[in-house]
Amino acid sequence: MNLYPLVRPLLFTLDAETAHAITLKLLNATYISSLSKLLYPSISDKPVNIMGLDFKNPVGLAAGLDKNGDYIDALAALGFGFIEIGTVTPRPQPGNPKPRLFRLPEHQAIINRMGFNNLGIDHLFAQVKQSRYKGILGINIGKNFDTPIEHAADDYLIGLRKAYAAASYITINISSPNTQNLRQLQQGDESRKLIAALKEEQLKLQQEHGKYVPLALKIAPDLSSEDISRIAKLLLEFEVDGVIATNTTIARDMIANHPLAHETGGLSGSPVKDKSTAVVKGLSAELQGKIPVIAVGGILSADDAQEKFAAGASLVQIYSGLIYQGPELIREINEGQRHKAKG
């Protein structure tokens, strides 16, 4: 029963961030009242094994929708093959001033400059422990806005240590455009130092916890082919377990004539599709199946997802597509899935 086309026009009359909060509360209410089973019938299993993990289907929720892990069970009831929560920082922070979230329906796009607003990793950890969800859970970690970039690794190490016990995999977010200088961590020596420190700590935590939790690096779509090649070589050198391509874009040429094009922040949805696919294709060519690629960016249909699989992705994640198309998109992608897992 797909009620979302009826509900969406009402939600779109509200401020985007208000609508986001209300939608999550409504979703949680349907889960608590057991209406989820009626509204969202179960989705067929189409298992994918990558990073040593068994995903029940290849369609995941991208980070950013449930930053604090407050709605894990309700979101899982929609039929996702995996859930990624965060981005979470060591300390709570309010994020950037409002308004900071904008819809561009004509382009099936969203601009956000949220700025890692979250309640801190201790809150998120507590929420995960209370959750009943037994599927694959990714935890996306970042740095606090006031941590100097030269000390960014300290924040990521705190996040890694605190998330390790609760996560199926951990995503290192160095590609958000909404935290000053963060994308600098994708460059040269900065990325090498950070990845080296995190991989060293990962192996220590493996011994401490008696389990191996994979690390994935989330990168931007605004990278040159040289950047992609360099990052791929680093991933291979340090045996990073996965790569997520891509985050939002700072480019505006796709929406140049829109009245909101001047708003700063990351652009997601349909306009980022081709840029994201190009990065997936470039990474896949460099990595040659040795490290799996998880694709996110501009997936608003089963055909969009198939483009990502054809470009070399093993899994896909959605966020903006969920806002514009609703939960039925998960089923459509899963039923249209015609790929073999890479990596």
The portion of residues assigned to helices is: 25-40%
Count up the domains. 1
- CATH architecture verdict: Alpha-Beta Barrel
Q: List how many beta strands DSSP finds.
A: 13
Mean pLDDT: 96
Distance between the termini: 36 Å
CATH superfamily: Aldolase class I
Spans where pLDDT lies below 50 across 5 or more residues: 339-343
Q: Which word captures the global form? A: globular
Radius of gyration, whole Å:
18 Å
Proportion of beta-strand residues: 15-25%
**Counting H and I runs of at least 4 residues, what is the number of helices?**
12
The topology string of helices and strands comes to HHHEEEHEEEHEHEHEHEEHEHEHH
Please write out the topology.
Blueprint lengths: L3 H8 L4 H17 L3 H4 L8 E3 L2 E3 L3 E3 L10 H5 L5 E7 L12 E4 L4 E4 L8 H10 L5 E6 L10 H12 L5 E5 L14 H22 L5 E5 L5 H13 L4 E4 L20 E4 L3 H15 L5 E4 L5 H10 L3 E4 L1 H6 L2 H9 L7
Helix pairs in contact: 6-7, 7-8, 8-9, 9-10, 10-12
What this model shows, in words?
The chain has about 350 residues and is α/β, with parallel strands linked by helices. It has a single domain (about 5-335), classed as TIM Barrel. Helices cover about 40% and strands about 15% of the residues. The strands form three sheets. The protein has an eight-stranded parallel barrel, surrounded by four helices. Strands 5-6-11 form a three-stranded antiparallel sheet. Strand 3 (about 60), helix 4 (about 70-75) and strand 4 form a beta-alpha-beta unit. The radius of gyration is 18 Å and the shape is globular.
